[in-house]
Amino acid sequence: MRQGFDELISKVKECGKKTVAVSVAQDSAVLEAVQAAKERGIADAILVGDEAKIREIAASINMSLDGFEIIDEPDMIQASLTAVKLAHDGKVDMYMKGLIDTKNFLKSVLDKEVGLRTGGPLSHVAVFDIPSAEKLLYLTDVAFMTYPTLEDKVHIINNTVPVCKACGVEMPKVAPLAAVEVVNPKMPATVEAAELARMNEEGEITGCIVDGPLSLDLAIDPEAAIHKGATNRKIQGDADVLLFPDIHAGNLVYKALVHTIPGVKNGCILTGTKVPVILTSRSDTFETKVNSIALAAVVAEELKKQQQ
Questions:
Q1: CATH topology for the 123-260 domain
Q2: pLDDT(64) > 90
Q3: Residue 10 pLDDT > 80, yes or no?
Q4: What CATH number does domain 5-117+273-307 carry, 3.40.50.10950, 3.40.1160.10, 3.40.50.2000, 3.40.50.880?
């Protein structure tokens, strides 16, 4: 059975509707997304921000606010702290960025009193539904960690595996990418990729299969594995997770997929937090925002299971 965002949204409905707290909710694009999420049975929302502006924007887009809780807090910084505290206290399942700059939004996520720290580094995962593919593809990290160290990459894998499991991938295949698929001491990305594979072999990284270094073609194209004689690899064009050596590689692939593949869908969340954090960009499409809420909802359910 094909796995895509339609199937993911069906999965959300099976685990029950979640609730998202929106930080500084007076943003038309975000309000449209939470309205759609509510109508599709994905999530309810608590809107934190300037109530007068929220109502004004809602009226301008013909959005009914019936059924939405609004917490009036005109100050943006205070609104973000009020919204994140709802997630910190377990009153909502997800936390979403509204009309607030990323720097201050992340400050609320990392706040020592009411934030969502878990003790490890945060990382970002983008999930792609590519029409020609039979399953979802997970890209990390394309937006948060700039130049991850070997230790950071271990954290990124550990942050991403629960996302895969939440989406139905029980034993995700993780491909640490490099320009080549053999170890070259002059190319640190290949050395670290091989070390990650060793750590996985020896039980230091669990819950997934890690095979690296891998070139991008070997990671996602089974024909390439055959042509290159790489049929002894644990991953032969069937990777679930693409682990990038740095933010440049990840961001370039992310934008190439978004802007060149007709019909592609994606959703993104910040991981390594107490609850999933929806950190979408103003340039993200309406559907990407809705998909990100759906992704966060299934991950929230998975995190709840792990805590029981």
A1: Isopropylmalate Dehydrogenase (3.40.718)
A2: yes
A3: yes
A4: 3.40.50.10950
